[in-house]
Amino acid sequence: MSVLENWEEWKSFLGNRLNHAENEGMDQSVVSDMAYQIGGYLAKQVDPKNEQERVLADLWSVASEDEKHAIANMMVKLVENNGTQSK
To answer: From the centroid of its chain, how far is CA 63?
Structure first.
């Protein structure tokens, strides 16, 4: 089963990667830009595997560039404390 198939596992996966990036000293603006790029990739290349991903894909498809950055930033905030690694 892919981490994309379960919303909670996906959030945990993203949270772990975010914590790792922050522990390695990655700047918040770089994290934000990467989240935006990942959102774009997922929207174009990956079929949503659950209802939450479908909502995100639908929102992404109608969003302006600024709104896409806002969605990406909100996803970062959502998963900030979801990882299993401590800061």
So the answer is: 16
Tell me the backbone φ, ψ of residue 63, rounded to 5 degrees: -80, 150
pLDDT for residue 58: 95
CA dist., res. 40 & res. 72, Å (int): 9
Please give the C-alpha separations between residue 73 and each of 22, 76, 78, in angstroms, as whole numbers: 15, 5, 9
The residue-averaged pLDDT of 61-74 equals 95
Cα 37 to Cα 24: distance, rounded to the nearest angstrom = 20
The per-residue pLDDT for range 24-46, each reduced to its tens digit, is 999 989 999 988 998 898 888 88
Token pair 């560039």 is at which residue? Answer: 65
0.85 exceeded by pTM: no
For residue 23, give every residue at least 6 positions away whose Cβ sits within 8 Å of its Cβ, in sequence order, or none: 85, 87
Question: What are the structural domains of the chain?
Answer: 3-79 (1.10.760.20)
